[in-house]
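Here is a typical protein record:
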Amino acid sequence: MGDTRKSASFIKEGAKAAWPICIGYFPLGLAFGILAQKGGLSLPEIALMSLIVFAGSSQFIAVSMLNSGAAPVSIILTTFMVNLRHVLMSSSLALYLRGSSRKFLIPYAYGVTDESFAVNLTRFRDTDWHPYEALTVNQVANAAWIGSTILGGYGGQFIPAGYLGIDYALSAMFLCLLVFQLRGRIYVLTAILSGCLAISLSLLIPGNAYGVLASFIGATGGFALLKAARRKQFTYGQE
Protein backbone atom coordinates (compact mmCIF):
# COMPACT_ATOMS: atom_id res chain seq x y z
CA MET A 1 0.00 0.00 0.00
CA GLY A 2 2.85 2.33 0.87
CA ASP A 3 4.51 1.63 -2.49
CA THR A 4 1.26 2.45 -4.27
CA ARG A 5 0.95 5.78 -2.47
CA LYS A 6 4.60 6.53 -3.25
CA SER A 7 4.12 5.68 -6.94
CA ALA A 8 1.05 7.90 -7.10
CA SER A 9 3.07 10.71 -5.53
CA PHE A 10 5.86 10.28 -8.09
CA ILE A 11 3.37 10.47 -10.96
CA LYS A 12 1.61 13.49 -9.47
CA GLU A 13 4.83 15.46 -8.88
CA GLY A 14 6.28 14.47 -12.25
CA ALA A 15 3.11 15.47 -14.10
CA LYS A 16 3.04 18.78 -12.22
CA ALA A 17 6.60 19.52 -13.36
CA ALA A 18 5.84 18.43 -16.93
CA TRP A 19 2.79 20.59 -17.65
CA PRO A 20 4.76 23.73 -18.67
CA ILE A 21 6.63 21.57 -21.19
CA CYS A 22 3.32 20.23 -22.51
CA ILE A 23 1.99 23.76 -22.97
CA GLY A 24 5.09 24.60 -25.01
CA TYR A 25 4.92 21.38 -27.01
CA PHE A 26 1.28 21.77 -28.02
CA PRO A 27 1.65 24.64 -30.55
CA LEU A 28 4.94 23.27 -31.85
CA GLY A 29 3.46 19.80 -32.24
CA LEU A 30 0.49 21.22 -34.09
CA ALA A 31 2.83 23.16 -36.38
CA PHE A 32 4.93 20.08 -37.07
CA GLY A 33 1.87 17.95 -37.81
CA ILE A 34 0.55 20.54 -40.25
CA LEU A 35 3.92 20.94 -42.01
CA ALA A 36 4.39 17.16 -42.19
CA GLN A 37 0.91 16.74 -43.68
CA LYS A 38 1.66 19.46 -46.24
CA GLY A 39 4.93 17.68 -46.99
CA GLY A 40 3.11 14.53 -48.01
CA LEU A 41 3.28 12.42 -44.84
CA SER A 42 0.18 10.46 -43.90
CA LEU A 43 -1.34 10.58 -40.42
CA PRO A 44 0.09 7.15 -39.43
CA GLU A 45 3.52 8.23 -40.70
CA ILE A 46 3.38 11.43 -38.63
CA ALA A 47 2.36 9.48 -35.52
CA LEU A 48 5.06 6.85 -36.10
CA MET A 49 7.73 9.51 -36.65
CA SER A 50 6.84 11.25 -33.39
CA LEU A 51 6.71 7.93 -31.54
CA ILE A 52 10.04 6.61 -32.81
CA VAL A 53 12.07 9.81 -33.13
CA PHE A 54 10.57 12.13 -30.48
CA ALA A 55 12.92 15.00 -31.31
CA GLY A 56 11.15 18.14 -32.43
CA SER A 57 14.06 19.89 -34.13
CA SER A 58 15.13 16.74 -35.99
CA GLN A 59 11.57 16.07 -37.11
CA PHE A 60 11.19 19.60 -38.46
CA ILE A 61 14.54 19.31 -40.24
CA ALA A 62 13.70 15.89 -41.68
CA VAL A 63 10.37 17.11 -43.10
CA SER A 64 12.06 20.20 -44.55
CA MET A 65 14.74 18.05 -46.21
CA LEU A 66 12.12 15.62 -47.51
CA ASN A 67 10.29 18.54 -49.12
CA SER A 68 13.50 19.74 -50.75
CA GLY A 69 14.20 16.31 -52.22
CA ALA A 70 17.25 15.52 -50.09
CA ALA A 71 18.68 12.00 -50.21
CA PRO A 72 17.84 9.65 -47.31
CA VAL A 73 21.51 9.41 -46.32
CA SER A 74 21.74 13.21 -46.01
CA ILE A 75 18.63 13.32 -43.85
CA ILE A 76 19.91 10.56 -41.56
CA LEU A 77 23.35 12.14 -41.16
CA THR A 78 21.94 15.63 -40.55
CA THR A 79 19.45 14.52 -37.91
CA PHE A 80 22.16 12.36 -36.31
CA MET A 81 24.47 15.36 -35.99
CA VAL A 82 21.67 17.56 -34.63
CA ASN A 83 20.86 14.95 -31.98
CA LEU A 84 24.45 14.42 -30.84
CA ARG A 85 23.77 16.92 -28.06
CA HIS A 86 21.76 14.16 -26.37
CA VAL A 87 25.06 12.44 -25.54
CA LEU A 88 26.09 15.45 -23.45
CA MET A 89 22.66 15.76 -21.83
CA SER A 90 22.57 12.07 -20.95
CA SER A 91 26.08 12.27 -19.49
CA SER A 92 24.96 15.08 -17.16
CA LEU A 93 21.85 13.17 -16.08
CA ALA A 94 23.77 9.91 -15.55
CA LEU A 95 25.28 11.37 -12.36
CA TYR A 96 21.84 11.33 -10.76
CA LEU A 97 20.76 7.94 -12.09
CA ARG A 98 23.55 5.75 -10.75
CA GLY A 99 22.36 2.33 -9.75
CA SER A 100 19.25 2.47 -11.93
CA SER A 101 18.39 -0.71 -13.81
CA ARG A 102 18.50 -1.05 -17.57
CA LYS A 103 14.73 -1.55 -17.59
CA PHE A 104 14.42 1.95 -16.14
CA LEU A 105 17.16 3.61 -18.20
CA ILE A 106 15.82 2.51 -21.60
CA PRO A 107 12.42 4.29 -21.34
CA TYR A 108 14.06 7.18 -19.51
CA ALA A 109 16.70 7.73 -22.19
CA TYR A 110 14.03 7.54 -24.89
CA GLY A 111 12.21 10.50 -23.34
CA VAL A 112 15.15 12.89 -22.90
CA THR A 113 14.66 16.18 -24.77
CA ASP A 114 16.06 19.68 -24.31
CA GLU A 115 13.07 20.71 -22.23
CA SER A 116 12.77 17.61 -20.03
CA PHE A 117 16.54 17.68 -19.53
CA ALA A 118 16.39 21.27 -18.28
CA VAL A 119 13.50 20.56 -15.91
CA ASN A 120 14.92 17.32 -14.50
CA LEU A 121 18.50 18.53 -14.14
CA THR A 122 17.34 21.60 -12.21
CA ARG A 123 15.19 19.45 -9.92
CA PHE A 124 17.95 16.91 -9.38
CA ARG A 125 20.32 19.69 -8.37
CA ASP A 126 17.98 21.74 -6.20
CA THR A 127 15.55 19.22 -4.69
CA ASP A 128 15.23 15.61 -3.61
CA TRP A 129 14.02 14.62 -7.08
CA HIS A 130 13.35 10.93 -7.55
CA PRO A 131 14.24 9.15 -10.83
CA TYR A 132 10.64 8.00 -11.23
CA GLU A 133 9.45 11.60 -11.00
CA ALA A 134 11.93 12.43 -13.75
CA LEU A 135 10.67 9.47 -15.79
CA THR A 136 7.11 10.79 -15.44
CA VAL A 137 8.23 14.19 -16.77
CA ASN A 138 9.71 12.52 -19.85
CA GLN A 139 6.72 10.32 -20.61
CA VAL A 140 4.03 12.95 -19.99
CA ALA A 141 5.90 15.34 -22.30
CA ASN A 142 6.23 12.51 -24.82
CA ALA A 143 2.48 11.88 -24.79
CA ALA A 144 1.77 15.61 -25.25
CA TRP A 145 4.12 15.80 -28.23
CA ILE A 146 2.74 12.73 -29.98
CA GLY A 147 -0.86 13.80 -29.39
CA SER A 148 -0.31 17.34 -30.65
CA THR A 149 1.52 16.20 -33.81
CA ILE A 150 -1.30 13.77 -34.63
CA LEU A 151 -3.86 16.53 -34.08
CA GLY A 152 -1.82 18.85 -36.30
CA GLY A 153 -1.52 16.17 -38.97
CA TYR A 154 -5.27 15.67 -38.98
CA GLY A 155 -6.04 19.40 -38.99
CA GLY A 156 -3.46 20.16 -41.66
CA GLN A 157 -5.85 19.10 -44.41
CA PHE A 158 -8.13 22.02 -43.50
CA ILE A 159 -5.36 24.68 -43.38
CA PRO A 160 -3.84 26.27 -46.50
CA ALA A 161 -0.05 25.92 -46.95
CA GLY A 162 1.90 28.73 -45.26
CA TYR A 163 -1.17 30.00 -43.41
CA LEU A 164 -0.47 32.02 -40.21
CA GLY A 165 3.28 31.63 -40.70
CA ILE A 166 3.27 28.01 -39.49
CA ASP A 167 6.38 27.26 -41.53
CA TYR A 168 8.24 29.70 -39.24
CA ALA A 169 7.59 27.53 -36.16
CA LEU A 170 11.00 25.80 -36.17
CA SER A 171 12.91 29.08 -36.49
CA ALA A 172 10.82 30.57 -33.69
CA MET A 173 11.51 27.58 -31.44
CA PHE A 174 15.28 27.83 -31.91
CA LEU A 175 15.24 31.60 -31.37
CA CYS A 176 13.36 31.03 -28.11
CA LEU A 177 15.87 28.37 -26.99
CA LEU A 178 18.73 30.72 -27.91
CA VAL A 179 17.37 33.61 -25.84
CA PHE A 180 17.14 31.42 -22.74
CA GLN A 181 20.78 30.34 -23.22
CA LEU A 182 22.19 33.89 -23.32
CA ARG A 183 23.38 34.01 -19.72
CA GLY A 184 26.47 36.17 -20.22
CA ARG A 185 28.75 37.97 -22.63
CA ILE A 186 30.54 34.81 -23.78
CA TYR A 187 27.24 33.15 -24.66
CA VAL A 188 26.22 36.18 -26.73
CA LEU A 189 29.57 36.18 -28.54
CA THR A 190 29.20 32.45 -29.25
CA ALA A 191 25.72 32.97 -30.70
CA ILE A 192 26.92 35.85 -32.91
CA LEU A 193 29.96 33.86 -34.07
CA SER A 194 27.83 30.82 -34.94
CA GLY A 195 25.29 32.94 -36.80
CA CYS A 196 27.93 34.75 -38.86
CA LEU A 197 29.64 31.46 -39.67
CA ALA A 198 26.36 29.86 -40.73
CA ILE A 199 25.62 32.73 -43.12
CA SER A 200 29.15 32.70 -44.55
CA LEU A 201 29.35 28.91 -44.94
CA SER A 202 25.89 28.75 -46.55
CA LEU A 203 27.39 30.69 -49.48
CA LEU A 204 30.23 28.19 -49.83
CA ILE A 205 28.79 24.80 -48.87
CA PRO A 206 25.76 23.31 -50.68
CA GLY A 207 23.00 21.56 -48.74
CA ASN A 208 22.40 21.84 -45.00
CA ALA A 209 25.80 20.77 -43.66
CA TYR A 210 26.85 24.39 -43.12
CA GLY A 211 24.55 24.67 -40.09
CA VAL A 212 26.13 21.72 -38.30
CA LEU A 213 29.66 22.90 -39.16
CA ALA A 214 28.95 26.45 -37.98
CA SER A 215 27.48 25.15 -34.73
CA PHE A 216 30.52 22.96 -34.09
CA ILE A 217 33.02 25.74 -34.79
CA GLY A 218 30.99 28.29 -32.82
CA ALA A 219 30.61 26.00 -29.81
CA THR A 220 34.33 25.19 -29.86
CA GLY A 221 35.19 28.88 -30.03
CA GLY A 222 32.77 29.67 -27.20
CA PHE A 223 34.27 26.94 -25.04
CA ALA A 224 37.77 28.29 -25.70
CA LEU A 225 36.63 31.80 -24.68
CA LEU A 226 34.99 30.47 -21.52
CA LYS A 227 38.09 28.49 -20.59
CA ALA A 228 40.34 31.51 -21.19
CA ALA A 229 38.09 33.72 -19.07
CA ARG A 230 38.14 31.23 -16.19
CA ARG A 231 41.92 30.90 -16.41
CA LYS A 232 42.26 34.68 -16.31
CA GLN A 233 39.90 34.90 -13.33
CA PHE A 234 41.86 32.19 -11.52
CA THR A 235 45.15 34.02 -12.16
CA TYR A 236 43.75 37.28 -10.78
CA GLY A 237 42.44 35.40 -7.75
CA GLN A 238 45.91 34.09 -6.94
CA GLU A 239 47.39 37.57 -7.18
About this structure: The chain has eleven helices and no strands.
